[in-house]
Amino acid sequence: MSVPVMTVPGEPPAPVSSAAVRATGLTKVYGSGETAVHALAGVDVTFERGGFTAIMGPSGSGKSTLMHCLAGLDAATSGQVWLGGTELTRLRDDQLTRLRRERIGFVFQAFNLLPVLDARENIVLPMQLAGRRPDPAWFDAVVARLGLRERLRHRPSELSGGQQQRVAIARALLPRPDVVFADEPTGNLDSRAGAEVLDLLRSSVRETGQTVVMVTHDPTAASYADRVVLLADGRPAGEIDRPTAASVLEALRGLGG
Amino acid sequence: MLSTTLAGLRAHLPRLVAATLAVVIATAFVAATLVLNETARATLLRAAGAQYVGADAVVTARDGGSLAGDVATLTALPGVAAVDPTATADVQAALPGRSAAYLQVGSVAADPELRWQRVTAGALPDRPGELALGLPTDAEVGDVVAVSVLDPATGDVTATAEATVTGLVDLAGDPAAGVYAHGYAVPAQVSAWGATDPTELRVAAAPGTDPAGLVATVAAALDGRDVTVSTGEEAAASAVAYVTGNRLALTAVLLVFATVAVLVAGLVIANTLAVLVAQRTRDLALLRCVGATSRQVRRSVLAEAAVTGLVASTVGVGAGIGLAAVVSALVGTDSPIPLEGVTVPLYAVAAGLAVGTLTTLVAALGPARAATRVAPLAALRPADPAPLRSRGGLLRFATGLVLVLGGSALMALGVVMAQIYPALAGGAASFLGVVLLAQRAVPPVVAAAGRALGRAGGLPGRLAAGNASRNPRRTAATATALLIGVTLTTAMVVGAASTRATAQAGLDSAYPADVEIGAYGELPSSLLPQLEEVDGVAGGTALAGADLTGPDGQPTWVQGVDPADAGAVLRSTADLPLPALGEVVLPPWAAEVWSVRDGDEVTLTAGANSRTLTATVGGDASTPLLYAADLRGLVPDAPAATLWLRLADGDGQRDAIAEVTELTGAAAPDAYVTGLASERAAIDQVLDAMLLVVTGLLGVAVLIALIGVGNTLALSVVERRQENGLLRALGLTRGQMRGLLAWEALLVAGVAAVLGVLVGGAYGLIGTASLLGGQDVVVVDVPWVQVGGIVVVATVAGLLASVLPARRAARTAPVAAIAAV
């Protein structure tokens, strides 16, 4: 999908780089005056295309807020977010909604699926909302890779937690989004199902070049990523390349988390 | 716990407004019905029982014998101030330039205490030769009325007199006032005009005498006589009871609607409180966490309901009394059900308060139980909307089925027997069954309609269909509230239309001519052309009359009619067959007298002329009818004896009749004018009023049900916050979210409206068939436009109800799906 590059007169043209998502000077303040809480206190971060990045940090570090702002789910107080060449922070609600369903995939911790729709309907939901037809070959490939072929007619209540997350991943991958955001995707799963989900996310990055950004507090989950971005008190607090569970744990301990 | 309850009430005030409104409307309806009933009774008591209300004791002869000899006895009793023997005389009276009409003349009491007439102009007569007339009348004070005294046995005029009108008496509210004319004269004049002996005495008590004691004294004095002694109030009440049969039926009908309003309100309140409990799951769970027992939680919810119910029903009773006052002012005293001011009985207030509060409390039982099931841990973990499972569903289903089948059997019986009572009982039972079955029947229908919608409405349509059939119990409750309103409205509309059609058909055949002008002698031939000129007269035909000698050798009055002319004038010839050339139509009495059967030959002679005609027996005509040319063949100069007129349809009929009456009176003083046009208009008026009431009911029912639909959707929005957040995150625009809720509302409301129209239409037809089964012709009339209108109104109302919840849903932040975790 070709992405039009938006330029703003009087400002430097948008950088056309390999970055899938980029944020500069991002702040998010809840409340005002004395009681103001700075959930994000100036974050500059870049996520490369085709990378699998984990955002980590102790509770209250702002990692979920960061993801919400990056994904256009929540409005930042100041700063800019770029998805490819599009500046999210300039879009109105309807434009953001359309952008989300066309260019962003989501996997949440829980309540990922609509209970009234079966697995197939849930998978194609964002594309249907956008009025697009999924490419049948690609649909079959995604469904086969996630092992859902036998489950397409099942409702969420008839699926296990791991199966539900796999349906959510299929839904996220189907529109070939610019980026998939996963928010604690293994939080509600046992360790075996969790490992399966993380394997699937990693293989989608390796095999199809999908960009994935995952928020997690679990060092083992983070070790599946190519890179870990650490956050503390709403500010970046270092990065780890090729993380292992041990190196992540070590870094977190250094943050006091 | 009470302070928590009150704090909760304040916090949820906006949502409670909806529940309160439902209670207010239902309670107002109940209170208004009872107040109007009491007002109508009081008005009638003052009007129809006017002559008794002011008396302290009333003596009535049970055998109709004379009480004239007892006046002196009673006057002499201690504690009796005055005794008035009530005398009436029946006379014919004619205003200047008018034809004579029946006038009932009553006596004016000698004692001012016992004079009950409300004089609006002039004064009551105080000497013979004077007359006061009851309103409505065209007479004015100072007019001179020609009075013909009739022989009670033969009806012949025995004397004529003149009387000056001295005053006009207001009879407003007395149903008998419009039926025939009333006059009042001094006792001497009344007896001079042929009054019979008094059969009723009205007694006034001396100052300081107890009326009950007076009744006892009078009764003791008349011991052994066949008389009834009662207080004035009692006599008035029994006089009222004599004329109020229909009004009581109307009260019963209104109370049925009040019950319906209460039922619908109950369903709405139950839904609203369920919304409140669901919204507060976390609050309630937190209360449990910090130590509130489930009993305390239940008490808190019930206390909230009790306060809401009490406040709302207080407002409702006030609103109901206000409504009754407005209705009373609008209806006034010039109507079939006269109303004057408002009479507020204590029981109406008490009943309104009790019904409103109890309904709210009963409706709160379910939500209160749900509240006690909130686990303390719910405060700590994500909300998990567990679908409600219906328990006792089988029992409900079986009960519903039994009621529907039994009720249907009773209704069938009612139709067959042409009796409304079994049909009413069957209708009530089967409707209760329908409401119970709705829990089972509505969800599958909604699901089926949803599948069709899913194909037509795209993704939001399919999601809405899924959502609507997701909580069958709640969907059923919402739909039922609307179903009840739609069913009853449709039943009334269809019933009223069929009743109107049947009544009109009956009137048309019983009274085929709008206006009939007859004379004992002859009518001037110039009269018909004159009358045909009158504005509002569509056409007319004249019947010639003559005495012919029949087979029994006796002269018999017959009339000749031109069927071509008459056919255009008459509204129906079902009960009035017209003769063809060579035929004579014989009413059954003539056929009997002449010993003639259908198809026999009948020879009629007039002087030297004679004709043999074929007899057709039947019809309601008062005289044998000949073909006009046949009659002219026998009596060439037979004069016009009867005129039939047809009036143009519309509002001007009353004026047309007045002008026709006046012209006729001037041209032929002894002619009489009768006609059904005014009765036809009266029936139309009553049915129109009924339909207006029904429209009002539709308003009430739809309004309450609308609140219910809105609340159910609001509950859905609350429960599906995460789901809606997810949809927003995945790319559902705000417009699509609003569409989703609109489809859901449309689906539930549409299904309820269509089911309601089907069931209600059946009830309307069954009701008409059993109520009017005794009539010759039952005309079934389904007013498709109105019925279609009901479906549209109910569905659009449901759609409107989705507006606010949809706005709320559209505002759901996409992060809600994640943030709530």
| Low-confidence region ranges of chain B | 382-390
Q: Give the rounded overall mean pLDDT of chain B.
A: 77
Shape of chain B: globular
Strand content of chain A: 15-25%
* Low-pLDDT ranges of chain A: 1-15
CATH architecture of chain A: 3-Layer(aba) Sandwich
User: Which sheet architecture does the biggest sheet of chain B show?
Assistant: 9 strands, mixed
- Kindly estimate the percentage of residues of chain B that lie in beta strands according to DSSP: 15-25%
Task: Describe the global form of chain A.
Answer: globular
CATH topology of chain A: Rossmann fold
Oligomeric state of the chains present here = heterodimer
Q: Could you tell me how far the N terminus lies from the C terminus of chain A, measured between alpha carbons in angstroms?
A: 41 Å
Identify the strand order in the major beta sheet of chain A: 6-7-8-3-9-10
Overall average residue pLDDT of chain A: 85
Can you tell me the CATH superfamily of chain A?
P-loop containing nucleotide triphosphate hydrolases
Structural account:
The complex is a heterodimer of chains A (257) and B (821). By secondary structure, chain A is an alpha/beta fold. Chain A has one domain: P-loop containing nucleotide triphosphate hydrolases (Rossmann fold), CATH 3.40.50. Chain A has helices spanning 63-70, 93-103, 119-129, 136-145, 161-173, 191-208, 219-222, 245-255; strands at 19-30, 37-48, 52-56, 78-83, 86-87, 104-107, 179-183, 212-215, 227-232, 235-241. Chain A has a 6-stranded mixed β-sheet, with helices on both faces. In chain A, a hairpin with a 2-residue loop joins β4 (78-83) and β5. In chain A, α3 (119-129) packs parallel to α5 and α5 packs parallel to α6. The N and C termini of chain A lie far apart (41 Å). In chain A, 46% of the residues are buried. Residues 1-15 of chain A have low confidence and may be disordered. With 821 residues, chain B is of the alpha+beta class. Chain B folds into 4 domains: 1-50 and 246-383, no CATH class; 51-243, no CATH class; 442-511 and 679-821, no CATH class; 515-675, Barwin-like endoglucanases (Beta Barrel). Chain B is built from 25 helices and 20 strands. In chain B, the strands form 3 sheets. In chain B, strands 16-17-15-18-14-13-19-12-20 form a 9-stranded mixed β-sheet. In chain B, strands 3-4-9-6-8-7 form a 6-stranded mixed barrel. A 4-stranded antiparallel β-sheet of chain B has the order 2-10-1-11. In chain B, a hairpin with a 6-residue loop joins β3 and β4. Chain B is globular, with a radius of gyration of 35 Å. Chain B starts with a helix and ends with a helix. At the A-B interface, α2 and α3 of A face α13, α21 and α22 of B. Chain B: Keywords: Cell membrane, Membrane, Transmembrane, Transmembrane helix. Chain B: It is a multi-pass membrane protein.
